Amino acid sequence: MSSKKGIVISLTVMALLVLPSLSGCIGPKEMSEKLIEKFGEKQHYEWDKKLEDKRTFKIIDVINQNWAKVEEYPPVKVKAGTRYMHIYLAVNFSNIINPMWEWLTLGYANITITDPSGVNTSRDYTSLGKGNEYRDFFYIPNPQKGNWEITLKLRGTGDYKIFVEVYEPV
Predict the structure, then answer these.
(1) In Å, what is the CA distance from 66 to each residue of 25, 106, 152?
(2) How many C-beta neighbours within 10 Å does residue 16 have?
(3) Are 127 and 98 part of one and the same domain?
(4) What pLDDT, in 10s, does the model give residues 134-163?
(5) What's residue 59's pLDDT?
(6) Domains in the chain, number
(7) Is residue 33 domain-shared with residue 50, that is, in the same domain?
(8) Which of 29, 3, 35, 40 is nearest to 16 (CA)?
(9) Environment class of residue 5 by beta-carbon count within 10 Å: exposed (0-12), middle (13-18) or buried (19+)?
(10) Do both 49 and 116 map to the same domain?
(11) Low-confidence stretches of the chain (pLDDT beneath 70)
(12) Which pLDDT belongs to residue 23?
């Protein structure tokens, strides 16, 4: 009786592994991750704030080799097994003559995110003919283990806030 039970269990496991892979819906890597997640030991995850900064930038800050204020933050360290990484950037541009005016703002923002393998993701925004606020959110599922670098380049006047958090095993 026990040999029949063993055969049934092994056939069930093979069906669970092979059939979804053959259908093309999910690959073997994803399937093995799901099985480990389902039957393996449970890991405890928590959100960990890696970076939070709020600063202003003015015309005087712009005088450098790139004609922009450049902020290179210390590397964000990501552990193995991290599920998610969130990067939030909010920039408010103001008028050069009177910071209280929300119209006639000139500004430029660039955020560059470099992953541990050296691949860059970059986004630009200019406020010319647009609103004076720029908000961006990066959602990175299963980020690579290692040091992530974040660089901001800003021109004009205003203030910005950046926030980085990861959902990682404790």
Answers:
(1) 47, 17, 12
(2) 14
(3) yes
(4) 999 999 999 999 999 999 999 888 999 999
(5) 74
(6) 2
(7) no
(8) 35
(9) exposed
(10) yes
(11) 1-2, 15-28, 37, 40, 61-66
(12) 60
